Amino acid sequence: GSKVNVLTAPPQLLAALAGDDAFEPLASQEVARIVELRAEGMITDVDTYLSDALFTNSTTTELREMIDVKSNWFLLDARVDIADRERRLYSVLHRQGRAVSVVHRTEGEL
């Protein structure tokens, strides 16, 4: 299966990736700090993400199997104005090797 890209994951998903057996999400201030570090370019790979004091040795082993810093699935959100009307197009894209395919496409609201 696909892993979660910690460089692009929304804060809510990062909170759920606590990796401990208590199933408690990360605190909002911890997630905010991770997002800030990420924005500053301080998190560049899985090792720098997991080296944060927030994670213990027992959780890093578990998390390493679930996270990455690359993606193979993407959501394209396109907006076009034509004759004073807005059109929205959403496409779910999958990259496999050097090929990208459209898995699903819809118009309007998601």
Mean pLDDT: 88
Largest sheet: number of strands, sense, barrel closure: 3 strands, antiparallel
The dominant shape is elongated
Number of helices: 4
- How many beta-strand elements? 5
Estimate percent helicity: 25-40%
How far apart are the termini? Answer: 24 Å
Query: Topology as H/E string?
Result: EHHHHEEEE
Which residue ranges are poorly predicted, with pLDDT under 50 across at least 5 consecutive positions? Answer: none
Number of domains: 2
Secondary-structure-derived class:
alpha+beta
Topology readout:
Layout lengths: L3 E2 L5 H6 L11 H12 L6 H5 L6 H8 L2 E2 L4 E10 L2 E12 L2 E9 L3
Parallel strand pairs: 1-2
Antiparallel strand pairs: 3-4, 4-5
Question: Can you describe what's shown?
Answer:
The chain is α+β, with helices and mostly antiparallel strands and 110 residues long. The chain has two domains: 65 residues, no CATH class; 35 residues, no CATH class. The chain is built from four helices and five strands. The chain is elongated, with a radius of gyration of 17 Å.
What would a concise description of this structure say?
With 110 residues, the protein is an alpha+beta fold. It has 4 helices and 5 strands, in the order E-H-H-H-H-E-E-E-E.
Tags for this model:
two-stranded parallel sheet; single chain; 4 helices
